[in-house]
Task: inverse folding
């Protein structure tokens, strides 16, 4: 250890209180799955077993949807909007009270640094409920007609990268708009959703308004295909999103889809270089790069590329990789072995296709799933690492000479979720922001999220927006559209 | 002997020109009295692809025009249509078998529809965009933007109004389009193309095909450069199949009730949110 190394500063696990096994949350109670099947959830940083989780099959999904329907028709749709909103406020407050517990459980189950779960995931999740609580009794002023109506029962499927935050993005607007929900958390990160079920109990949320069913892709498909679900909200891969679009093509169901991305992070020659380097690091290494909107394609102007790369490498050498429970950790564990294999597979194609790999020298822990922060230079647009979503801490670097070329390269993707612009010229930023085909543009910043800010993609990055006034549209009946 | 009329050859409208189908095919359209009216082109898959190429190349220019300018051009379409009313009366009466009076009402409503959507062009982002109050020192705003190339299957009846109320909102949002006219009542749509050709709308922004819906919709569904589809003129079954193949590039697909509504514009737009820090 050199004399300037950080001493470890571990967060205590004691607050977590994880049960040895969990059932499904249906009709306001934890119940055993009908077939009695279960699966395990692990800490990806240590490979230790955390808990046994109930596996929901078709019959359990049916029970959950029935309970959501009953709650919708008998209770939730009849309740004055003002009262509905109060439940959301209660949820927000309890989440804030139990924030540290949520953060610890999230980090243990997901592998993300405690600093991120504590400072980003959990506060933002609570803020999402607080924000949407206020919409519940103001929907008639939101611009969707004088008498906006909910859709009914919503099936929601979320990924493992921001487990509780994605739950909040889904459940808060759905409930605020007057729908009831059946939510399936990701197979590898079910714990905070089950903790959230306890929050619903503490908040006195009427039985059946929120149902949490745990399982895998088969469980999710059963939810998508259930005939009494009115709408599907999904965050995950573009392939699964397309499969969902196909599954519901002959039904009356609507969908919002938040799918993959391959965001361009454009750095112009007139950017504040040090800030841009910080932004590049935050853009790709935040949450181990397990971010659909990660700035995974750095597109930098040729005359500043050398300077940027030199500073970037120096900065990357300071990234602390390791124990996610250590408050000093910057880059935590990869969420699963499966995801680690995927990162290896696509990154290795970068070597094979002739790009140049660089990672800082560091020692990865012997147990758990880890991938070092990595950049590829000499990347061309046809390389797989420039086209496919890696969903890991791997950055592909391309260069450009003219602004027009920058835009062309940035837009050369089937995705269009987010993009970054670094420049000190206001007119240039607004020009570039207008040209970029992406739903979220971060200029001189990156990876910022807020309940009031709509999020969602162009092209094959999805359908619809989540958050803000715009996100409500996905949970209210359309005035002009005719569903099949 | 009375004078012999000069009958019009009804052709396609692609990239601002009026070509025949590359396939050389036509089909017979009869009036409500079963008498021959015209042999419009029977558009092929290749014609569709050509129309999409024209639409794609014209789109950025149309979306990049100022909203005020787009509004003026949509208004100009209404002006030109007003002057052509008589021609539309004849076509609609012959096709739909309605009286001149009823046909005239339809045309007037179509003209007013252009005027209504014309006015939306430079007001849409005020009602559908927002400045978002995020928790931090950031300026954050959301604004609607055009989707890209939108295909339209126009309703059969009312033949002219059906085409206009699908077309006008798509154009108001800055998209370019390929409109597939009603198979049974295609003539007013083609004449509409002649209106558009003289109304300052840039070539390629609107392309109009005539032909067999059943032949064209699978190609529309699978075309990767088509971003959205208004399925007004498709059956439920055809819509389902189009949704199935349209999932390959996640097309935005919609059917609307027979009303004018800003949601018709916004359904074929994307919302872009831009962040910038505030500070010195």
Result:
């Amino acid at each position: 250890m050199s004399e300037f190394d950080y001493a470890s500063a571990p967060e205590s696990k004691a607050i977590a209180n994880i049960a040895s096994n969990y059932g499904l949350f249906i009709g306001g109670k934890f119940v055993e799955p009908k077939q009695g099947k279960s699966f395990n959830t692990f800490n990806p940083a240590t490979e230790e077993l955390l808990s046994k989780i109930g596996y929901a099959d078709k019959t359990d999904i049916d029970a959950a949807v029935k309970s959501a329907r009953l709650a919708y028709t008998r209770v939730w749709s009849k309740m004055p909007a003002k009262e509905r909103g109060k439940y959301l406020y209660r949820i927000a407050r309890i989440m804030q009270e139990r924030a540290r517990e949520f953060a610890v459980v999230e980090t243990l189950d997901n592998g993300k640094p405690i600093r991120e779960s504590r400072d980003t995931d959990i506060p933002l999740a609570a803020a999402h409920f607080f924000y949407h609580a206020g919409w519940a009794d103001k929907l008639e002023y939101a611009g969707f007609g004088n008498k906006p109506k909910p859709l009914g029962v919503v099936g929601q499927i979320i990924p493992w990268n921001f487990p509780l935050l994605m739950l909040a993005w889904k459940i808060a607007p759905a409930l605020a708009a007057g729908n009831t929900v059946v939510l399936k958390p990701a197979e590898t990160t079910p714990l905070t959703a089950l903790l959230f079920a306890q929050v619903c109990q503490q908040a006195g949320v009427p039985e059946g308004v929120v149902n949490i069913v745990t399982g895998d892709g088969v469980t999710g498909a059963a939810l998508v295909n259930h005939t009494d679900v009115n709408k599907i909200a999904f965050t995950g891969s573009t392939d699964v999103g397309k499969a969902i679009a196909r599954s519901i093509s002959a039904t009356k169901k609507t969908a919002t889809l938040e799918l993959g991305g391959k965001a361009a992070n454009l750095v112009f020659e007139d950017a504040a270089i040090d800030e841009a380097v910080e932004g590049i690091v935050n853009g790709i290494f935040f949450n181990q790069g397990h971010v659909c909107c990660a700035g995974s394609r750095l597109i930098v102007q040729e005359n500043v590329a050398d300077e940027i790369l030199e500073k970037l490498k120096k900065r990357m050498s300071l990234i602390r990789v390791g124990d996610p429970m250590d408050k000093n950790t910057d880059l935590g564990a990869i969420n699963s072995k499966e995801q680690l294999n995927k990162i290896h597979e696509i990154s290795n194609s970068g070597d094979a296709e002739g790009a140049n790999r660089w990672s800082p020298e560091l020692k990865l822990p012997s147990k758990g799933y880890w991938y070092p922060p990595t950049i590829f230079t000499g990347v061309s647009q046809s390389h797989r690492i420039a086209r496919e979503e890696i969903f890991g801490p791997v950055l592909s670097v391309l260069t450009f000479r003219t602004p027009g070329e920058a835009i062309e390269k940035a837009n050369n993707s089937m995705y269009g979720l987010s993009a970054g612009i670094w420049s000190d010229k206001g007119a240039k930023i607004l020009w570039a922001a207008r040209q970029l085909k992406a739903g979220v543009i971060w200029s001189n910043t990156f990876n910022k999220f807020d309940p009031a800010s709509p999020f969602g993609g162009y092209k094959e990055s999805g359908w619809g927006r989540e958050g803000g006034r715009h996100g409500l549209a996905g949970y209210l009946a359309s005035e002009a559209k005719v569903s099949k | 002997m009375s004078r012999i009329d000069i009958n019009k050859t009804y052709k396609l409208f692609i990239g601002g020109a009026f070509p025949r189908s590359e396939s050389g095919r036509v089909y017979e359209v009869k009036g409500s009295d079963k008498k021959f009216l015209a042999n419009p082109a029977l558009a092929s898959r290749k014609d569709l692809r050509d129309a999409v190429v024209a639409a794609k190349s014209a789109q950025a220019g149309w979306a990049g025009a100022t909203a005020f300018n787009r509004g003026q051009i949509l208004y100009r379409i209404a002006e030109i249509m007003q002057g052509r009313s008589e021609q539309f009366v004849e076509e609609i009466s012959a096709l739909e078998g309605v009286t001149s009076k009823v046909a005239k009402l339809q045309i007037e409503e179509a003209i007013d529809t252009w005027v209504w959507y014309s006015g939306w062009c430079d007001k849409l982002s005020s009602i559908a965009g927002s400045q978002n109050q995020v928790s931090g020192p950031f300026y954050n705003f959301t604004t609607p933007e055009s989707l890209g190339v939108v295909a339209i299957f126009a309703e059969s009846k009312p033949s002219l109004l059906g085409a206009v109320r699908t077309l006008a909102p798509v154009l108001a949002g800055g998209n370019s389009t390929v409109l597939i006219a009603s198979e049974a009542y295609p003539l007013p749509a083609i004449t509409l193309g002649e209106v558009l050709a003289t109304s300052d709308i840039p070539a390629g922004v609107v392309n109009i095909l005539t032909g067999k819906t059943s032949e064209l919709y699978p190609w529309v569904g699978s075309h990767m450069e088509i971003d959205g589809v208004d399925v007004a003129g498709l059956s439920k079954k055809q819509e389902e199949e189009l949704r199935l193949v349209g999932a390959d590039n996640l097309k935005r697909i919609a059917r609307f009730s027979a009303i004018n509504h800003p949601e018709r514009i916004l359904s074929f737009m994307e919302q872009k949110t831009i962040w910038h820090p505030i500070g010195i």
Observations:
- Chain A has two domains: 21-259+461-475, 264-450.
- Chain A is about 40% helix and 15% strand.
- The first strand of chain A starts at residue 21 and ends at 22.
